[in-house]
Amino acid sequence: MKKTAAALAALLALTACAFEQAPNEAAPPSSSPPSDIVLDTAAEGACGKLDEAIELRNSGDSWDEIDAATAEIEAKTLALESSVEELKGIVLDSPEGEDIDESTARMRDWCVENAGSMEVSSAGASEEAVSHDGAQELISELGEADISCTGYEPVEGAVGAETRGSCYLESGEEVVVSTYASADDVDVQMETHRALGGEVHLLTGPDWTLNSADGGFLEAAQEVLGGTLVME
Questions:
Q1: Do residues 129 and 203 share a domain?
Q2: What is the dihedral of CA 226, 25, 32, 40, to 10 degrees?
Q3: Ordered strands of the 163-168 beta sheet
Q4: Where are the alpha helices (DSSP H) in the chain?
Q5: Residues 6 or more apart from 209 whose CB is under 8 A from it?
Q6: HEC assignment per residue over 50-98
Q7: Where would one find the signal peptide in this protein (predicted)?
Q8: CA of residue 178 relative to chain centroid, distance
């Protein structure tokens, strides 16, 4: 049997649709952007299946069979972001005639180098969080738990947010606190951060976000406010 192509195609298909769904759970609409947890799960799931793919390919196969599956793989992976695209590229963009051992070795190297590049706290699970009426209320709640963020300054006319303000930790690190009209607006804010490039350090709730480069502060804030910690 031509097992190598099937194994690598399955690996890429897993990357594109590893939503870890429960039985009979409908897949998310293809038009919906993948969440951080989905992307993280997809990359980890693909890497987790790498050894299985290598074992299956030992029966021998050619890159021609892999090329035949390219269209289907491409359609399933286009919606995903850079970490998944990089892994897909290692297979689909391999030089013609490259030894398959070299390709799988490069895939393994990618998995090792990118392990943990998209960290989601508590193995991707979010702590229970509640809505808040304003940015200053969030900061006040942290203060009541002895997490100090002082010098609050409101931001008037913040684009996309209902309220936004900044406060400062003892280290001088700025914390930007925002509240939104809906969870959809929080998702838009997440995508905006990614589009700007650089690192993304956020604690997100149902209608609010805390943005700070201080990961320790965000972890402490999560214990008080709940929410999902995203470190990319």
A1: yes
A2: 60
A3: 119-120, 228-231, 201-204, 208-211, 174-179, 163-168, 150-154
A4: 3-17, 36-48, 50-57, 63-68, 70-77, 82-92, 100-114, 135-144, 183-195, 215-225
A5: 176, 177, 178, 180, 186, 189, 190, 202, 203
A6: HHHHHHHHCCCCCHHHHHHCHHHHHHHHCCCCHHHHHHHHHHHCCCCCC
A7: 1-18
A8: 20
Look at residue 167 and tell me whether its pLDDT is greater than 80.
Answer: yes
Query: Is 158:178 a contact under the CB 8 Å cutoff?
Result: yes
Q: 129 and 112: one domain?
A: no
At 185, list the tokens: 């607006």
Cα distance between residue 79 and residue 73, in whole Å:
11
**Mean pLDDT score, 127-149:** 76
How far apart CA 47 and CA 54 sit, in angstroms, is: 11
Partners of residue 230 on adjacent β-strands: 120, 202
Q: Whole-prediction pTM value?
A: 0.45
Task: Write out the residue range of the structural domain in which residue 105 sits.
Answer: 3-117
Structure tokens at 82: 């850079």
Indicate if the pLDDT at residue 29 is higher than 50.
no
